[in-house]
Amino acid sequence: MLGFLTKQPLSLLCSGLRIRGLSVLCAQSRPRAMASSSSSWELPLVAVCQVTSTPDKQQNFKMCAELVREAARLGACLAFLPEAFDFIARDPAETLRLSEPLGGNLLEDYTQLARECGLWLSLGGFHERGQDWEQTQKIYNCHVLLNSKGSVVATYRKTHLCDVEIPGQGPMRESNSTIPGPSLESPVSTPAGKIGLAICYDMRFPELSLALAQAGAEILTYPSAFGSITGPAHWEVLLRARAIETQCYVVAAAQCGRHHEKRASYGHSMVVDPWGTVVARCSEGPGLCLARINLNYLRQVRQHMPVSQHRRPDLYGNLGNPLP
Questions:
Q1: 195: which residues sit within 8 A by CB, 6+ positions away?
Q2: What is the pLDDT of residue 137?
Q3: Cα 216 from chain centroid (whole Å)
Q4: Rg from Cα positions in the chain
Q5: Catalytic residue among 83, 100, 174, 185
Q6: Can you give the residue ranges of every domain in the chain?
Q7: CATH annotation of 45-309
Q8: 200 has catalytic annotation
């Protein structure tokens, strides 16, 4: 009955490419018998960057810039960087010391990089000294979206802070240094589609993803720094669940490896399509993967399985408006 949704093998565009020790994997979900005359090569290409941030902000920028330039060379229109792309500090005091305002030197470097490369940048989690810094002495975990001219087109401040204690992973108290954001950001039109912004721990709250989808999102992005215990157990499961329930593409750029003596991250950056298939993923270590975004396929998934129209807001609230 739903033959067009049959799982197809990944079509590899390139494999094993190295950039000064960084791995690059390129993958594409084959279009599933859809009524579209567009060649898959005409579909927008996105790049998902995987890095190992340290407390050294200059070195972190050098690694991120290298991946962004390679993404531009390979034809991507948008590159996604993970949470804490700017740095991962050893303790809350160092986090606060290294943080900057949005108008600081680091964001200026990234605006110049976006202009130089001519592509959009999703900066997935910037340690931001907000306008209330002098009063609070705390920061925001801020997802910044830049267009290809280097202009800030959206900022989303993480609304769900990760205050957890996982046996074997050590306690995480994000609220020690960070203030939760006040609201969601409306999905933003980009060359790849309408993007809904989130950050890491937000993926555990399906209400957020449904709200963004109902506001028009076609791509949900969860830049992250998952730990070594929760990563193997929950990372891929949660990302695929968010894609399936919203029928959106999900893009998740991740931190990987050991950042310093106190912290390591799981990695496994990936792209999931609206059917829940992982269509691109990074290998171990810093690098990037590429995927094409097929919005015709997204619309067909929603048409053939109209779950948004079957929701019962009379039973469980307002998360029941049909998707556009």
A1: 122, 145, 187, 188, 217, 218, 219, 220, 221
A2: 95
A3: 17
A4: 19
A5: 83
A6: 45-309
A7: 3.60.110.10
A8: yes
Contact 309, 322 (CB under 8 A): yes
Q: What are phi and psi of 157, to 5 degrees?
A: -100, 125
Of these residues, 57, 138, 158, 194, which one is catalytic?
158
pLDDT at 26: 54
Q: How far is CA 34 from CA 16, 286, 301, in A?
A: 30, 35, 10
pLDDT value at position 323?
59
Low-confidence ranges of the chain (pLDDT < 50): 1-22, 28-37
Number of residues written out for the chain: 324
Phi, psi dihedrals of residue 307, rounded to the nearest 5°: -60, -30
DSSP letter, residue 294: -
Give the pLDDT confidence of 208-263 residue by residue, as tens digits. 999 999 999 999 999 999 998 999 999 999 999 999 999 999 999 999 998 998 88
Catalytic annotation present for 83: yes
Residue 213 to residue 186: CA distance in whole angstroms: 10
> Which member of 26, 200, 248, 289 is catalytic?
200
Q: What is the maximal distance between C-alpha atoms in the chain?
A: 61
